[in-house]
Write a structure and sequence with these properties.
about 40% helix, elongated, binds FE2/S2 (inorganic) cluster, cadmium
Length: about 500
């Protein structure tokens, strides 16, 4: 393996990156970015790595969400507060229902770039123009599509303002009451509305700890000259200090190209998007190059197959990774493999049911393999404007498009459904003596007689695997049956 440096990617083939016509201006901008203070701290990146390692072992659930691409115009307090609140509340829902702690990653404060399937597009009246590659590169207005390096600095200022606001919000404590009020009104049409209401009520009485409001940031590191400028030496390591987690997109993961070279050398936890075109051998090689020290929590594999494809693809991908011996944490992005063009406005969007279908397909596959699939990236569209409505698709969810109800309603729905699927479908035994390969309960007749003597002539044994007094029943089957529409009950032995 050749030696690595923050700029060693430069000599390799590059994909999806903007080239700057004015090289002198680009150099000036990048020199300025190299001097500006880092946006996150190395220790925070290490902390996220620890949480991802726990998720990889099935001890934690990771929730990641945010905009597909942030716009500079979206950097305003109310909107940012809504997004953070939504992700934190999804974490609270998942924790409440799954019984596992969560790690929350916000795709925010740096997601200003967009990979494009085509570099140009044809616009009526203007002919063929450059595609919009995100506010970091060019403007959304068709007349503003020239690639402009000064936008990289604008991206930095917007990231800094966003992080400053979100960190202040999380640290202030003012959010305390608001976070515990989970809006479920928009889910009234669901048959499970009663159970959602009960869960929301139970969550409202929980206390908010510093871990409840802990969050991390992420973005796709696509424009590598920008990422290099924000990469800093920390002891003998190099960290990309523009975000806690950066990921490689499905279009830039070629083994012999620039992005893999850059990512293999940074010390952050890193993500890789895994789409349907990923070959098993390719994935095996990729994880080996990106995590040569076999470090837990280093590598997050984010699947984005599209609804209907996970069952066919994920088992072989899991086997390929296992064969490499590299520990990874799996996450499901139910959004990006399900793009469709809306007939009404020709905008790219997703059907909400497709998103949920993909997530639900991934859960049992991961569960059977004991490689827990730990997350979702469920909301990649703006959460507070009308375009969110297109996400709802065929699902009967009534929302007010101008209120928090859109984001919180959809986020809550995803949180509830995913958590319930996790607690329902994956494991018969979710928690009892998990260190053992097999839990065998041996009770002698003498024990049973003794129990009957002390328990009104009955020994009542748990068959739902949820009792805190296992092997005896403590009534937990009632709650489990209600949540999961099951009908388990105890084995009762009468003396
Ligand atoms: S608690 Fe498991 S059957 Fe009652």
């Amino acid at each position: 393996m050749t030696p690595w440096s923050p700029e060693s990617w430069r000599s390799l083939p590059k994909h999806q990156m903007a080239e700057w016509e004015d090289k002198a201006l680009a150099s000036k901008v990048l020199a300025k970015l190299q001097k500006l203070p880092p946006l996150v701290q190395p220790k925070e990146c290490d902390r996220l790595k620890t949480l991802l390692a726990e998720a990889g072992r099935g001890e934690r659930f990771i929730v990641q969400g945010g905009d597909c691409a942030e716009r500079f115009l979206d950097c305003e307090g109310g909107r940012l507060e809504t997004q953070l609140k939504l992700i934190l509340q999804m974490g609270m829902i998942v924790e409440h229902i799954s019984g596992k702690p969560t790690g929350k990653i916000c795709r925010i404060a740096g997601q200003y770039g967009k990979p494009r399937s085509k570099p140009t597009e044809v616009v009526e009246g203007l002919g063929e123009i450059m595609s919009f590659k995100g506010d970091n590169i060019n403007g959304f207005d068709p007349k503003d599509r020239k690639w402009d390096p000064e936008r990289l600095l604008l991206g930095y200022w917007h990231s800094a303002a966003t992080l400053n606001f979100l960190r202040g919000y999380a640290a202030s404590g003012d959010h305390d009451h608001g976070l515990r009020s989970i809006t479920v009104e928009s889910l009234k049409a669901s048959e499970q509305f009663g159970s959602y209401t009960e869960d929301a009520k139970a969550i409202s009485s929980k206390s908010i700890s510093s871990e409840t409001v802990e969050f991390f940031t992420s973005h796709e590191a696509m424009q590598l000259d920008l990422e290099e400028a924000l990469t800093r030496a920390v002891g003998s390591e190099y960290y990309n200090l523009s975000a806690h987690l950066v990921w490689i997109g499905d279009r830039t993961r070629q083994l012999d190209c620039a992005h893999i070279e850059y990512f293999r050398g940074i010390a952050n936890p890193i993500g890789v998007k895994v789409g349907p075109s990923m070959k098993n051998d390719e994935l095996k090689d990729l994880v080996t190059v990106l995590n040569p020290k076999k470090e837990e929590g280093r590598l997050l594999l984010i699947t984005r197959y599209g609804a209907g494809k996970a069952e066919a693809m994920l088992p072989d991908h899991i086997e390929a990774v296992k064969a490499s011996g590299v520990p990874v944490t799996w996450q499901c992005d139910g959004v990006h493999g399900n793009g469709v063009v809306a007939k009404s406005n020709k905008l790219k969007t997703r059907m909400f049911d497709d998103i949920l279908t993909e997530i639900m397909e991934v859960i049992p596959v991961g569960g059977e393999d004991q490689t827990m699939v730990d997350g979702a990236d469920p909301l990649s569209s703006p959460v507070t404007d009308d375009s969110s409505l297109t996400l709802i698709g065929r699902r009967k969810v009534k929302v007010d498009p101008t209120s928090l109800a859109v984001g919180v309603g959809l986020g809550a729905l995803v949180g509830f459904l995913v958590s319930k699927a996790l607690s329902k479908g994956t494991l018969v035994n979710p928690s009892i003596d998990k260190a053992s390969a097999k839990v065998a309960t041996v009770q002698s007749m003498k024990d049973i007689e003794e129990t009957c003597k002390n328990n009104n002539g009955k020994a009542v044994f748990c068959r739902c695997w949820r009792s805190s007094k296992f092997p005896y029943c403590d009534g937990s089957h009632a709650k489990y049956n209600k949540e999961c529409c099951d009908n388990t009950g105890p084995l009762v032995i009468n003396a």
